[in-house]
């Protein structure tokens, strides 16, 4: 039953059920970090579809197919709400996910609005996947907030792959990032929208290139707040009384999970094992069998 049909009915899900967070890969860990800080009483399940990342190189139907399959799997794990912590998946499939899944679904979008409100030079760089930048959803968002701002749109080819390899500071990565960021600096941008949840893990590398000349806009804290509002409005927020039972987040990956474990440990200080999970979907059934 779609969630809309449940809005007027009492929810059978308990507030102690987990919140699910999903991304094409490791990037959603930046959202998980913000959610853990904002909502420490919530149980969390994280699913990384790293076997099929980056989504930014996939076609729209593939992205929607995987988003729905993983969303359904997370619902089957007892999730009470889903955060699609992927700009690319949100831009292509959030409407279908909301229609299909019987729980609240929270999406993400590049922080165009806060950037346009705060930029002094009125020149704003936007780094996101090519799929996100060309999506109708992003185009509408940019149109709504452009005003007198000039947005420099830059697809971040190669950046998701680097983070998936846990490369956040190699000379090759810095050179690639420089080729994206320097033209923005040359155009007098003072703000950079990190329009992909993988990119906050590159903040130090970006600082190494741009120093303090660019304010970095990362929406993970705003997403955590939106999740909080949704949980409150549906009476699904975990109570502090449930906190003593809280365990560490459960992490799942569709590949061997090594990189997820490494990044969770090094960047979030989370030392947890990652479970491998096979989540079949219409489009992946036609691909070679799982290499893992
Ligand atoms: N973290 C995803 C996003 O926010 C990465 C997309 C991809 O896998 O290309 O867009």
From TrEMBL:
The active site is at residues 86, 196. The keyword Cell wall biogenesis/degradation applies. Belongs to the aspartate/glutamate racemases family. GO terms for molecular function: glutamate racemase activity. Pathway: Cell wall biogenesis; peptidoglycan biosynthesis. It catalyses: L-glutamate = D-glutamate. The lineage of its organism: Bacteria, Pseudomonadati, Pseudomonadota, Betaproteobacteria, Burkholderiales. It comes from the Bacteria. One of its GO terms (biological process) is regulation of cell shape. The gene is murI. This is Glutamate racemase. NCBIfam families: glut_race (TIGR00067). Gene3D superfamilies: 3.40.50.1860. It comes from Caballeronia mineralivorans PML1(12). Its EC number is 5.1.1.3. Substrate binds at residues 23-24, 55-56, 87-88, 197-198. It holds the Pfam family Asp_Glu_race. Keywords: Cell shape, Cell wall biogenesis/degradation, Isomerase, Peptidoglycan synthesis.
